[in-house]
UniProtKB/TrEMBL annotation:
The lineage of its organism: Eukaryota, Metazoa, Chordata, Craniata, Vertebrata. Keywords: Glycosyltransferase, Signal-anchor, Transferase, Transmembrane. The keyword Transmembrane applies. It is found in: Membrane. It comes from the Eukaryota. GO terms for biological process: protein O-linked glycosylation via N-acetyl-galactosamine. It comes from Hucho hucho (huchen). Its main location: membrane. Belongs to the glycosyltransferase 8 family. This is Glucoside xylosyltransferase 1. GO terms for molecular function: UDP-xylosyltransferase activity.
Length: 201
């Protein structure tokens, strides 16, 4: 299965790389504001039934896309994004679900994971919102209190907020990251606290 961007989905990659114990799959529109090793440590928190770590789409179900628009079963907490740990036994589930719901799937592998976890609610590990901080966490008020206390660890550019002027804090972090990555010295830490919209390097 290939996603709309012509990249293999994490579900397909897990079928191909069967001998790989763990796989970290993230969207291309995220910025790590903490060392990537920190996210790997989350995988060690899985219990024996958990197959993937995922962030909630929204704290408030009334504002969640899946609750309002999905035309297929979904995990009752409305996932937004995923990190997948391999090996996963998707072969038995993936193709039948894809065939059954192919006309109702909007978000590709994200929808398929929601369908799978609707029927296997013990399988996902839900990680805190600071690991997938996106516009919905701050546009209608503060919806990620742990990020206010501890900072944002991964910033997600859903809705193109890195490239417009609607959310200046998101764009400022993106531009600061570009500058840092193009310089010869990379700081040890970078912290973003959403309540003030400030970036500390």
């Amino acid at each position: 299965m290939w996603t709309k961007t012509s990249c293999p989905s994490p579900l397909t990659v897990s079928l191909i790389l069967k001998d790989v114990e763990s796989l970290l799959h993230v969207d291309t529109d995220i910025l790590f504001l903490q060392p990537v090793e920190e996210i790997w440590s989350i995988l060690s928190l899985f219990n024996s039934t958990q197959l993937a770590a995922m962030a909630l789409e929204h704290k408030d179900p009334r504002m969640a896309w899946y609750n309002s628009f999905a035309r297929h079963p979904y995990y009752n907490k409305y996932f937004k994004n995923d990190m997948t740990s391999v090996p996963l036994q998707w072969e038995e589930l993936l193709m039948p679900l894809l065939q059954k719901y192919k006309l109702n799937i909007i978000w590709g592998d994200q929808d398929l994971l929601n369908i799978i976890f609707h029927y296997n609610s013990e399988s996902p590990y839900v990680f805190p919102c600071q690991w997938n901080y996106h516009l919905d966490h701050c546009i209608y008020g503060s919806n990620c209190l742990v990020a206010e206390r501890e900072g944002v660890f991964i910033l997600h550019d859903n809705r193109g907020v890195y490239h417009d002027d609607k959310q200046p804090a998101f764009r400022a972090i993106y531009e600061a990251t570009q500058k840092v990555m193009s310089s010869s010295t990379i700081p040890d830490t970078c912290e973003f606290r959403p309540n003030g919209g400030e970036v500390w390097v």
